[in-house]
Design a protein that fits this description.
alpha+beta, Beta Polymerase, domain 2, globular
Length: 244
C-alpha cells in the first residue's frame, strides 16, 4: 500500500491470532513434516478510509505462513469454509490477544449444517480430480488423498457430535499408510464412499444449527472495527504544508 504498511507489517504488527495447522495439528506429523502457520490480522480501521485498501490476505512472511484479514476470515467462516473452521479449532496456538480470544470464543457461531455441503462436496470434487491421475496412468497423489479422507472423517464426526476435532486419533496409522502410497486405491475409494455416506446419514439428526449465527459474528466485527477506529493511526502522514 502506498504510504501505508507493507503486508509483512500488517502480519507482524497486527496479528490477533495465529496457530499451527497441517499435519502437526491433525496428529499426522512425522519427522519430515513442515510447520504450517495460519493467522488472522486486524488491519487498523483508518486504512479502509483510503483509496488503497488493506489486503484481504497475506502469504508469508515466514515459509508456509498464510494470514487473513479479520473481515475476510469471518466471511469465509460464515460460509463454512473448511480451512477457516479448522484454524479456529487448532490445538497449537502460537499468538493470541484479547481480540483473538474473542474470535476463538465465537467459533461455535460459525458452525452449522452447511459443513456437510462444504466439507463433503469439496472432498468429493477433489477425489474425482485425484483419481483422474490413476485413470491416466499416472501415480496417484497420495498426500492429497489422505487429506480428503481426513476431511471426511472430521466432517462425519462434526455432524454427529456438533464438535470439530482436528486430531485423527485412532485413524493415524491408516491415514499415514495412504499418504505413503501403501493402500490399494480401491480401498481408498471404498473408504471415501463409506465416510461420505456416514456424513449423509448424520446430517438429519445433527446437533448443529441449520445456519451460522451471523448476528453474533457481525456484532463482534463491528465492535472490533469501532475500537480500532478510536486508536491513533500509526500510518497516517500529513503532507508538508497541509493542516491536518
Amino acid at each position: 500500500m502506498a504510504n501505508g504498511p507493507t503486508p509483512e507489517q500488517l502480519v507482524n504488527d497486527h496479528t490477533v491470532y495465529s496457530c499451527v495447522m497441517g499435519s502437526r495439528a491433525f496428529g499426522l506429523a512425522t519427522g519430515e513434516s513442515d510447520t504450517d502457520r495460519r493467522g488472522v490480522f486486524l488491519a487498523p480501521t483508518p486504512l479502509f478510509w483510503r483509496f488503497d485498501k488493506p489486503p484481504t490476505h497475506v502469504d508469508g512472511p515466514l515459509p508456509e505462513q498464510f494470514s487473513w484479514e479479520l473481515e475476510r476470515f469471518c466471511l469465509l467462516g460464515l460460509r463454512a469454509n473448511p480451512n477457516i473452521l479448522e484454524v479456529l479449532h487448532s490445538p497449537l496456538v502460537e499468538r493470541i490477544d484479547d481480540t483473538g480470544r474473542e474470535l476463538v470464543a465465537l467459533r461455535d457461531a460459525f458452525l452449522s449444517r452447511e459443513v456437510h455441503r462444504t466439507f463433503v462436496r469439496y472432498a468429493e470434487g477433489q477425489y474425482k480430480r485425484l483419481t483422474a491421475d490413476q485413470r491416466a496412468g499416472r501415480e496417484p497423489r497420495w498426500k492429497p488423498l489422505a487429506h480428503l479422507l481426513r476431511l471426511l472423517l472430521c466432517c462425519r464426526d462434526l455432524l454427529r457430535t456438533g464438535e470439530l476435532v482436528l486430531d485423527v486419533g485412532a485413524e493415524r496409522e491408516a491415514l499415514l499408510a495412504v499418504r505413503r502410497g501403501e493402500t490399494d486405491p480401491r480401498r481408498i475409494e471404498a473408504w471415501a464412499a463409506r465416510l461420505a455416506d456416514e456424513a449423509d446419514a448424520a446430517l438429519p439428526g445433527s446437533p448443529l444449527p441449520d445456519e451460522p449465527d451471523r448476528a453474533r459474528v457481525t456484532d463482534f466485527l463491528v465492535r472490533t472495527r469501532r475500537a480500532s477506529a478510536r486508536q491513533p493511526d500509526p500510518y497516517h502522514q500529513v503532507p508538508e504544508g497541509v493542516v491536518d
